[in-house]
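Most newcomers find our protein records easier to grasp once they have seen one. There is nothing in a record beyond a sequence line and a structure line. Getting from the letters to the tokens is the skill we practise here. An example says more than a description, so a record of this kind follows:
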Amino acid sequence: MTWNIAQAKQQFSEVVRLSIQEPQAIYNRDKPVAMLVNAQVFEEFQQWHTRQHEPTLSEQFGEIRAALQADPSAVVDLPPRSATQRRNAFVEMLEAEGLAQPVG
């Protein structure tokens, strides 16, 4: 539902009551100036808004890359790769169907 500012002032309790069911738009001279929403909707919006400002994985890698380029003496210790082969479900399926030779 929509309200002009004067109506919203005069019937504030009603605007709040209706906001539980759906957002209430408040207009000033035919231009929207505010929305009244229930607390749960606002909380969900705040959580969504916070997630939108978290850096993406790509941005995080970019920051790490920039930090390593800025300090060439920095060393990143990576654990050695395992000598054992990980299973490959696709190759196993081909072998089970007799379409590939067993590896190994």
In short: Residues 39-72 form one domain.
